[in-house]
Amino acid sequence: MKFLQDTFLHTQKICSWSIMPDMQLVYSNCPEQEFFYNLFLVSRCSTAIQTHFAHDRLPLLVSDRTGFVWIAVCSATESESPSLIYMLGPIFTSEMTETHLRQLCRKMHLTSETTERLWQFVKEVPTISSSTAFSYAGMLHYCVTGCAVTSDEIELQIERIDRSEDVAWGDVSWHGSWVTEQRLFKSIMEGRLEDFGKVNTGNIGNMSGDDPLRQAKNEIIVFAVLCSRAAILGGVSVEGALSLSDYFIQMAEAADTVPEVMNIGGEMQKTYVQRVQKAKAHSNFSPLVRACVEYVDTHIFEKISLNAMAQEVGYNENYISRKFKGETGQSLFDYVNQQKIQMAKVILTDKKLSIAEISDRLAFSNPSYFSSVFKKQVGMSPAEYQQE
Amino acid sequence: MKYKLKPEIRMADFILAVNRCEGSVTFETQDGDVLNLKSELCKYIFLAVSLEPKYLESCNISCSSQDAALLTDYIEVP
């Protein structure tokens, strides 16, 4: 462990920390230990780490509003109480430039002498890509527990931010994204979920001056364009692929942190791959029936009306109903309910949600109707299924 | 009301105590900088500044007397 910690410090300038579950410091090799330990304690990251390891043993990447990111892993197994938490950090996943920090401080009318006092510490914080941060979390977890994890298992915790205190950003002038884009494009077109370490499109180039959140959102827009075109080539309908990109772009626009935008990107990649897989599985159906299937997927959390679907796919209601039943042997109404129940089974794994909430989320008219449809299809009530 | 920080206090504990205050708590430097200690970035700047005890001596904490009562372990309350 000491060797790994020294390696991180001397090759990447990343400091290591060992803390007790109550956040008492046991060990650190950080040259500016007092400042960064205090910064960690007063930031939301310490509370997030404490809460996470109270019930979870998988690694965590957590950021505060300013953009400081901490990687944390726990030495205990599921059945043991957490004994020691190992951390790497702080790091930035978007470089904090002196210009950006000074801009933030100017907004607060601070003198340059005061800003300089913070910059002396901030300039020592290394910047690494988010995918590298995920790899380091995996390495540290393996070193501590002897168990391997994939980046999907590593939790990325979001802190909602106040836009006046935006996150960090750097001058990226090298466009290294071409190879990554090609891999991404091909994986979506073929319906393969490749591990890009959440979302990493490579260094895509500076599109938004000194605003890192805007840069992340712009990257997601580029990413959405790539994903949608790849999905169309993979067999997803044009309307379905474009609606999906609109949906994720709007979600990204509403996000308040860079990690939150990254998570949305990861979710978007997964969704596109699933859509392509589904389109390939339904390749023997006509384009019209495939468009109906996609419509149901896109609107699964809404009340699905035959009229709205008919308008979107451009045929009348009777025709699409007949065509759908003729090709699939199942009525559209039954298909919609079947897909909603499939989704309900996934949501029911979250034991904190009530049946009424799940019914509401899937836009059933009331919980008792949801329960009766569920029971008819699954053979047990949603409550019984949730207990299993 | 303006108060002086006590010497040799744990700054992280002070900030955590500030979080429990109802009103605004600010840190004011002799250069005229005012840090709102409930803002994340200001907390970090305060932590950086507080590593220079000599400089800290010339600075004040400003808060209501009700909030000052919650901070008596950290500030000199007359």
List the helices and strands and how they pair.
The complex is a heterodimer of chains A (388) and B (78).
Chain A: H1 2-12, E1 16-19, E2 25-28, H2 33-42, H3 44-55, E3 60-63, E4 69-74, E5 85-91, H4 98-107, H5 112-122, H6 130-145, E6 155-157, H7 178-189, H8 212-233, H9 238-254, H10 258-281, H11 287-298, H12 306-313, H13 317-328, H14 332-347, H15 355-361, H16 367-378, H17 382-387
Parallel strand pairs in A: 3-6
Antiparallel strand pairs in A: 1-2, 1-5, 3-4, 4-5
Chain B: E1 2-5, H1 11-19, E2 26-28, E3 34-36, H2 40-49, H3 53-57, E4 60-62, H4 65-70, E5 75-76
Antiparallel strand pairs in B: 1-4, 1-5, 2-3, 2-4
* Low-pLDDT regions of chain A: 160-176, 197-202
Weakly predicted, low-confidence segments of chain B: none
Biggest sheet strand order of chain B reads 3-2-4-1-5
Number of helices of chain B: 4
- Roughly how many Å is the radius of gyration of chain B? 11 Å
Topology as H/E string of chain B? EHEEHHEHE
Query: How many H/I helices of chain A?
Result: 17
Shape of chain A: globular
Oligomer category: heterodimer
Describe what this molecule looks like in 3D.
The complex is a heterodimer of chains A (388) and B (78). With 388 residues, chain A is α+β, with helices and mostly antiparallel strands. Helix content of chain A is 56%, strand content 7%. Chain A has a six-stranded mixed beta sheet, sandwiched between helices. Chain B is an alpha+beta fold and 78 residues long. Classes of the chains: A alpha+beta (388), B alpha+beta (78). The A-B interface holds A 34-35, 37-39, 41-44, 64-66, 104-105, 108-111, 113-115, 117-118, 120-121, 162, 165 and B 11-12, 15-16, 29, 31-36, 39-45, 47-49, 51-52.
